[in-house]
Amino acid sequence: MKPILGITMGDPSGNGPEISVKALMKPETYEVCRPLIVGDAKCMEAAIPTVKGAESMKINVIHDVKEAKFEPGIIDVYDLDVVDLSKRLYKKDRKKLAEIMLADVLDAAYKESMTMCGEAAFQYVKKVIELAMAGEVDATVTNALNKDHINMAGHHYSGHTEIYADYTHTAKYSMMLAHDELRVIHVSTHVSLRQACDLCKKERVLDVIRIANEGCKALGIKEPKIGVAGLNPHCGENGMFGREEIEEIQPAIDEALAEGINIPEKAPTPPDTVFSKALGGWYDIVVVMYHDQGHIPLKVKGFVYNKELKKWDAVAGVNVTLGLPIIRASVDHGTGEGHAGDGSANELSLVNAMDYAIRMANAKKEKEVEA
Question: What predicted TM-score, i.e. pTM, was given to this entire model?
Answer without folding.
Answer: 0.85
